Amino acid sequence: MPANLAQGYLFWIGNIYSISFFSSEKVAYFEGMTARKLPVSTQKKENNFFADVYEVVRLVPKGRVTSYGAIANYLGTKMSARMVGWAMNAAHTEKGVAAHRVVNRHGLLTGKHHFSPPSAMQKSLEKEGVKVVKDQVQDFDKKFWDPAKELL
């Protein structure tokens, strides 16, 4: 192993484990990042990414939407938007998680196929006053809820 690969980290991706090595410079960069403060109920639990995602989604107000990337950014894992999507796919087992309020960065209902029927996501949003046309949230800029700004 090259000398500049100082630390290895084990990541769970889908149903496989992957080990990633970071140079000592990258490890120092990540260790220097400021951590976002999670809601108190999440701090008491063990470190579980899906549980953290669900806690943030529970805080999204009715009539507002957020994005996978905004949640990942708030949790300090900016490049993990896809992992937030996986958490939303599994959200049907969690109570009180309004997965219909999580859309992609452009306001598209990309997760609608994980609802039964697929139109349920749009119907749930419209019931809360969010207008959706052709799977696109209208007035997305006004309806967007950014946890990094709202949960200071």
What does it look like?
The protein is an alpha+beta fold. The chain folds into two domains: 1-33, no CATH class; 36-150, Orthogonal Bundle (Arc Repressor Mutant, subunit A), CATH 1.10.10.10. Helices cover 36% and strands 16% of the residues. It has helices spanning 24-31, 40-43, 49-58, 68-74, 81-89, 120-127, 140-143, 147-150; strands at residues 5-13, 16-23, 66-67, 102-103, 132-133, 136-137. Strands 1-2 form a two-stranded antiparallel sheet. A two-stranded parallel ribbon has the order 3-4. Helix 4 (68-74) crosses helix 5. The longest helix has 10 residues, at 49-58. The radius of gyration is 17 Å and the shape is globular. The model is unreliable at 1-30 and 42-46 (pLDDT under 50).
Short description:
This protein has 152 residues and is α+β, with helices and mostly antiparallel strands. It has two domains: 33 residues, no CATH class; 115 residues, Winged helix-like DNA-binding domain superfamily/Winged helix DNA-binding domain (Arc Repressor Mutant, subunit A, Orthogonal Bundle), CATH 1.10.10.10. It has eight helices and six strands; from the N terminus they run E-E-H-H-H-E-H-H-E-H-E-E-H-H.
